[in-house]
Design a protein that fits this description.
about 65% helix; Arc Repressor Mutant, subunit A; single chain; mainly alpha
């Protein structure tokens, strides 16, 4: 397996793939595979990956995978942030 990984690294570096892009590719594929192996169960997939479920959901939204939950402000928080604070004169 190490030889396969080393060959992949060599291929990525030789192909002018930047580190950030390679990380995104690896993360996306690992998340897709873990979700597939877990039957779509995010808690189980996050355990397989060794990350918190919230981190998995954030990455699912980032990579537009399945139905990653988007964070929404609660109504109270949205109203609170919409109000302007009085300025001190």
């Amino acid at each position: 397996m190490k030889q396969q990984f080393d060959a992949l690294v060599e291929h990525l570096v030789s192909g002018n793939i930047f580190l950030e892009e390679a990380i995104e590719l690896l993360e996306r594929k690992m998340i897709e595979r873990a979700l597939q192996m877990a039957g779509g169960k995010q808690t189980e997939a996050s355990k397989r990956l060794g990350i918190h479920r919230n981190t998995l959901q954030r990455k699912m939204v980032e990579y537009e995978l399945q139905n990653g939950r988007q964070r929404r402000k609660t109504v109270a928080r949205a109203v609170r942030t919409a109000r302007k604070k009085p300025s001190a004169a």
